[in-house]
Amino acid sequence: MRIVVLAGGIGGARFLRGLMSAAPDADITVIGNTGDDIHLFGLKVCPDLDTVMYTLGGGIHEEQGWGRPDETFTVKEELAAYGVGPEWFGLGDRDFATHIVRTQMIGAGYPLSAVTEALCARWQPGVRLLPMTDDRVETHVLIDDPDGEGRKAVHFQEYWVRLRASVPAHAVVPVGADQAKPAPGVLEAIADADVVLFPPSNPVVSVGTILAVPGVREAIADAGVPVVGLSPIVGDAPVRGMADKVLAAVGVESTAAAVAKHYGSGLLDGWLVDTVDAGTVGEVEAAGIRCRAIPLMMTDLKATVAMAAEALALAEEVRG
Ligand code: FO1
């Protein structure tokens, strides 16, 4: 079975771990969000690609969900001693090596997709990891300017990490997405897929950014295979992260049913909500999306495997 997964960072990576156990023989292609990418200290950092790669490759800081375990921060401290920041973004020494290799290869002319493949040769994540695009896309968030009357756009990482999404987001813009082309292999993987899954990743800044790359949404809608998603909202609050803040920016309520309808029946065939949201199943089905309520908390691998198995079962049910 060929499965395509549109993944953000932590939620996507943890779901993939469950999926790989639920379908050990499946051929899994992950299309990773690169809208969170940021250039720091002359280096290209790809948080979501790295989170998937490290998580599946056994190199993730498990509690934190991003970055490497047993980190030291000597380089960051030395940069700070020169007065060079930002101090709010935690890049460890081990992680730095990944960004140095990536930036060096990009400087030598390799596209991000080839660089990602090269990095994965070390980590062996057991899936094919593709960036959504080789082109530069950067998600920016429009906030009230704390120093003035108007508004200003900040990089997604500044909104997420420095500001902890503590101020209202008026708009979320994947800058460059409209001009971006899907990376090599992305459209082919979708066309060849037997099922497409949306993990419980952020529907706006993760899955939404991937869908904003021209051709991706259309390819999924036209693939003629079941498309099944898992709600990142449980009991009207994000399972983790601050998805509610960016959902508000696109005018979507922070409920499992509202997120399903945001994706829409033109894209989504099946939707899994948590048992606490069982009361919304009817509302989702009325919108033309088959819906089931199951436990959706990725508390451990067993629970995550069960979620992935339910997603695949719903896909089969949709296929009829
Ligand atoms: N998240 C944080 O909350 N604080 C950090 O300092 C931080 C650093 C960081 C470095 C490398 C990396 O790959 C991820 C990092 N993240 C950090 C996670 C990241 O900012 C976001 O959680 C994702 O971009 C959202 O998917």
From TrEMBL:
Enumerate the InterPro entries for this protein: CofD (IPR002882), CofD-like_dom_sf (IPR038136), FbiA/CofD (IPR010115)
Question: According to its UniProt record, which cofactors does this protein need?
Answer: Mg(2+)
Q: Which SUPFAM superfamilies match?
A: CofD-like (SSF142338)
Pathway the protein contributes to:
Cofactor biosynthesis; coenzyme F420 biosynthesis
Q: What Enzyme Commission number(s) does the record list for this chain?
A: 2.7.8.28
Q: Where are the transmembrane segments?
A: none
Q: Which keywords, in A-to-Z order, does the entry hold?
A: Magnesium, Transferase
Question: What is its quaternary makeup?
Answer: Homodimer.
Reported function: Catalyzes the transfer of the phosphoenolpyruvate moiety from enoylpyruvoyl-2-diphospho-5'-guanosine (EPPG) to 7,8-didemethyl-8-hydroxy-5-deazariboflavin (FO) with the formation of dehydro coenzyme F420-0 and GMP.
Q: Which HAMAP family match?
A: CofD (MF_01257)
What name is this protein filed under? Phosphoenolpyruvate transferase
What is the scientific name of the source organism?
Answer: Streptomyces antioxidans
